[in-house]
Amino acid sequence: MSENKTNFIMAVRGYKSVKRQKNANFTDVTALDRSNNKVLLRIVEPLSSEYINLNDVKSMAEVIKRDNYHVAILISKQFTDGALEEMGKQKIQYISEDYMPPFDIQELYLAVVDCAKNQCQKKCGKVVLVISECSEKAADHCKTKVLAVAAKRHLEERTVGLLKNDLKVALALTR
């Protein structure tokens, strides 16, 4: 769950992963945003129905200050009220089983397009400005082109749920 949400938020916000460090209880992903500011995404996969608590947030806040992160996001299933309150004070964003920060539909669409363009470059060695206009011989059978056309239609129809699914598919294609 958390890994998918991490990839999703990184794609929508245009973060570029720099380093991934796995620890006993969590994984820290250091990324850069579009302005080259350091971003910390901490992923905590609880073993059972554990909640992220106040001490977990305070520990993360120390890392943020020590390593000069500009933005921090804590990703897990559930949080205690105390943890949520402390994250508000520390300006730490969070993503849970029930909550995803809001984003613009245009950002979502652009994330799909970026993934698709990267896939085109890997597959065909070309950078295509408008994927739906690709004229490669295999373009009619290309999953990337089909995805880009569908995403454009979903943007025009403003169907956010389908556009979210398009991004999940695009991220899966890049693996």
Structural notes for this entry:
By secondary structure, this protein is of the alpha/beta class. The chain has 2 domains: 2-95, Trna Endonuclease, Chain: A, domain 1; 105-173, no CATH class. Helix content is 48%, strand content 15%. It has 6 helices and 5 strands. The protein has a 5-stranded mixed beta sheet, with helices on both faces. Helix 3 (81-90) links the parallel strand 4 and strand 5 (93-95). Helix 5 (143-157) runs antiparallel to helix 6. The longest helix has 20 residues, at 105-124. The chain is elongated. The chain starts with a helix and ends with a helix.
Helix/strand order, N-terminal first: HEEEHEHEHHH
- The helicity comes to 40-55%
* CATH domain class name of the largest domain: Alpha Beta
Number of domains: 2
Shape: elongated
Structural class: alpha/beta
Radius of gyration: 18 Å
Share of residues in strands: 15-25%
- Poorly predicted runs are none
Termini separation: 17 Å
